[in-house]
Design goal:
heterodimer; A: alpha/beta; eight-stranded parallel barrel; 12 strands; 18% strand; B: 264 residues; 55% helix
Amino acid sequence: MSHTAVGIGFRQPHYEELLESRPPLDFLEVHSENFFAQGGPARALLERTRSAYPISLHGVGLSLGSADGLALGHLEKLRELVQWVEPMLVSEHLCWGAVDGVHFNDLLPIPYTSEALEIFCARIGRVQDVLKQPILIENLSAYLQYRESEMDETLFLAELARRTGCGILLDVNNLYVNSVNFGYDPRPLIAQLPSESVRQIHLAGHLRDEECLIDDHGSRVCAEVWDLYRYTVATLGPKPSLIEWDTAIPELAVLLAEADLTRDALAAAEPNHA
Amino acid sequence: MPDLIDTQRAIAAALRQGGQANRAAVLFVGDEELITRRLAIYRGNVLAAITKALVTAFPVSQSVVGEEFFDALAGAYWRFAPSTSGDLHDYGRSLADFVASFEPARELPYLPDLLRLEWFVHRAYSAADESRLEARELAAVPTQAQAGLRLGLLPGTALIESIYPIVSIWTIHQPGYDGKFEVDWSLGERALIARPYRRVTVTALRPSAFALYQAFDRGDTLEEALQCAQSAEQDCDLVEVITEVVAKGPISARAVSAQQGVLR
């Protein structure tokens, strides 16, 4: 996969149109859990799609940060999916979501402590063994910070990558949302990341609530996030990048326009990293 | 410094019962009011996600009871039986049973069976693919061997017998339905939920056909199944019933394939 690969999220309102019109995209990304089906229309659709485009599998429910263990049933479903889809990338989140059998189906932040790092390293090791390939871990937008955190999220990710060989999926919108919500400059954090570990970037929109910025992936990438993206690819080099739009999904043409803007930004960064 | 498991338990408690926020508040940076508001954002996200999952799985029920009632039901159900899977397609299995004792739904006695039907539709959508038995394949089996065949049903096939017209309620809510928007409340219906071809279908069955499918499902031989069908509907034409079932129904080819393997 080229460093300048650009893709979009493959979403239900666009399924037929995209497969018929075949716009020039380097890859499509789906939520893994939407395709755990053993058969039927969803599976048939993904079979058609993987013939047309490389697929990136992005999981939201594995809950790697759960202190009480790894969801082996869920992992097995992911393993089956990875086996037949043969994705170009598999990713999950730096989060937890379940404890004592109850799953919250949300991306809850973890404290960035040595205990959490040990747990995450063990989980990732197990997952990479089962899937027989490295996975990417994505940074979160969080609405709360733990008092006990010993390091920045980016440093935690860098250490995770160093110890397990996993990759980092850098969501530039999430970085931006956190930087505004908690009041800091995100650029030094980006510079902390080992470039070779960052293997994909996500770009998305957010909304401004009276309380804080809410990472809803429901709008165009804003100017400040484009700036941060340009800084990121100038600092780390161009990376496969995805336009992520999960709610209030617009016409396909809007996503393709966002993909074009992404390509422009990547092209501008290329000369620095020839 | 608390262990990660205790941290996660405290947050889980705060998310499940709003009033427990103070136990979790000590974990985070900021004053208690800020933390309470931020935990409320997470709780809102969780409820939105599970409500969306339930609306996706039970669209007809939501249409019938209305958005406001369904949202309230979703919240009450989640408090009673939260999700246990990272895949929200798994959520809602016990909703029908919950509604059967849900006081606000007392005036909607058909709702549990309708929810049951929709749950089976939801599961049929993602059931494993398997070859359907063709009529000519069954005809190719020697007559004396046919009687002993244990014909199974395709993955995801389900049967419900209800005193309410749940198939009709479901049917009139389907996109593209252009008939009269009414049901006969005096009639019960026997529902077959299946995916014999590409789409999930919901069909109201006659008593003999229902008994036939039930017999296949529990592993009866074809001969035993036909006897059940006759008992269920004394005056039915068995040939007509079995012909229709094999022509269009969700019968698996596996028993006949195995039989042919034996013959070769």
